[in-house]
Amino acid sequence: MCASPGVPTYHILGVPLRSGSLYPGNENDAQAYRDAHLLARLQAAGCQAIDDGDVAIPSYLPHHSIPPIRSWPGPRIAWDCVSDRIAPILQRPGNVPLLIGCDCSVVVGTTQALLRAGAKDVHVFYVDGDFDDAPPDPARCQSAASLAVWLLTHSSPFWTGPPLGPEQVTVIGWSNPARSENPGMGSISLADVRRAGPREAARQALAGIPPSAAILLHFDIDVFETHAMPAAYFPHAQGLSLPEGAELVGALLKDPRIRIVEISEYAALRDLDQSHAGKIVDLLSDGLKKN
Q: pTM for the whole thing?
């Protein structure tokens, strides 16, 4: 499907793997979004959207607790699968991959795809309750998800790169602070969002990057407080309310520079009635609704 001039087409893609997270087990989280009628809701909101199924990822990837990265090289294999799958979509102007059911480490694979598609000025808006910038430690096993921002911004043997400069990443909504030095990285904390207001915080973030930027919007639902989103993989006691998150993410989604959207860290096993998947679908359809 080709997008109409000025109107993006969203390609819904499930990522049926949690190799980059701490625990395996929620390998089909994308189905909950489909059961909550994500495609129909986007279309009813006036969006051009199609369901492109799931990214094909091998089922035999390793699960282990060997430092420095849990289940390695599983995350790297998953990133390459994601990158290869969305590459043809990114080659078509106006087509936007919308990834669901993934863990935070997927941002490495999607950034890799955007760079390979020829984007010259990639910028990642990383909406998350954590900075996810823990450096690899040979004495400690950590999930690839907790290293995601560090991996994006440092040369390492863990992905092909090239890494982004810290000024190309903005972490928004965090309540748990950075774990490594990232001079020059954009940072808008939970307190900052509330001080400015969600819409203004989004406006300031968007105003700080060039008009030519290709934006990857990473949205981890643990940016919400536990009370609002207990289905998050790692719930946070401190976080945005649902209205605050909807206002923030909605303002970011409206920007025409968005090239990829990914929704991460939803745990279907904590949402048996899928009511919280429905709330995320509400947020997406409202945020992308055409006026």
A: 0.95
